[in-house]
Design goal:
14 helices, Growth Hormone, Chain: A
């Protein structure tokens, strides 16, 4: 994931970067819809063992694709650090000194920690909606479906300038949709609201990735993407703990609703704490990013 995200800015023209990010994110989300469906069909037709075998063999396609890629050395690199720890420290210093970058990471972290009740979907489906396994599958797929459709239709983002404002607004919509979904009395209404949440997450993800990739020089993109991947991977896991703990104390619906509201409150705090994110202007900030970044990395 780190390598793929770092390569994108070098394989497309600058004006196509956001479209490429949106396509990459949309295809990634599409796997969350198609993959489980294919897995279920394989298990039903051939059994669990056969499904694992097909999964393992299909990984050879990734190996073949990697072998066909040309080398992608970083461009514009200064003298490379001799030690790994020094290299990591350089990347962390860069991320910490760029408020727009750090703010975008914080946005994702609060959205996933407070507003991602995926751990509760099976409980919601069974105990609240009485829908069983198919209801849980619908809830899981709804978020990915909304994100996929939106990511593949976000051409308008290529012309947007205030990407930081869009990120904050999208996370607020995400939290509101999750909170209302917690109050829904119908499984299908909850699924529709989760699809809206997924759509908002898609807008947020594309804008955040565009900010991250455009303000980071090529020789630091791998290290920046490593921090980004750490945030993306840890946020949902923290969200699982938060959702389960609150559900144990106050019930499933209370956990979902309170998590959505906490997400809205937290994104307000992030907006105040990182004003550079709100002020981020795609045309102005990107033009000035390279010389600033070089000075920060020294």
């Amino acid at each position: 994931m780190v390598v793929r995200s770092s390569i994108i800015p070098n394989v497309v023209e600058p004006e196509l970067l956001r479209s490429a990010i949106a396509l990459n994110f949309g295809l990634f989300q599409l796997t969350y819809v198609v993959g489980p469906g294919l897995g279920g069909l394989l298990i039903g037709a051939l059994g669990v063992g056969a499904a694992y075998t097909v999964d393992a063999v299909s990984c050879l396609a990734m190996v073949a694709a990697a072998l066909r890629m040309s080398p992608q050395p970083p461009r514009g690199a200064a003298e490379r650090p001799e030690r790994v720890l020094r290299s990591i420290a350089e990347g962390l210093r860069f991320v910490g000194r760029n408020q727009a970058l750090t703010g975008s990471f914080a946005c994702d972290l609060v959205a996933m920690t407070f507003g991602m009740p995926r751990a509760l979907f099976p409980v919601l489906a069974v105990s609240v909606y009485g829908a069983g396994a198919e209801g849980a599958g619908l809830l899981y797929a709804s978020v990915a479906a909304g994100a996929t459709v939106t990511a593949l239709t976000t051409g308008w983002l290529a012309r947007a300038r205030r990407l930081g404002v869009l990120v904050v607004a999208a996370v607020a919509v995400w939290g509101a949709a999750i909170a209302i979904a917690g109050l829904a009395r119908s499984l299908w209404l909850a699924a529709a609201l989760l699809a809206i949440a997924g759509a908002a997450d898609s807008v947020s993800a594309v804008c955040r990735s565009a900010i991250n990739q455009t303000v980071t020089p090529d020789h630091l993109r791998g290290r920046m993407s490593s921090v980004f991947s750490l945030v993306v991977a840890s946020g949902p896991r923290l969200g699982d703990v938060e959702a389960g703990t609150v559900a144990a104390l106050g019930g499933v619906r209370f956990s979902v609703v309170s998590g959505g509201l906490a997400c809205i409150a937290a994104i307000g705090v992030v907006a105040l704490a990182f004003p550079a994110l709100i002020r981020f202007d795609a045309e102005h900030d990107v033009a000035e990013a390279e010389p600033q970044v070089r000075r920060a990395a020294v």
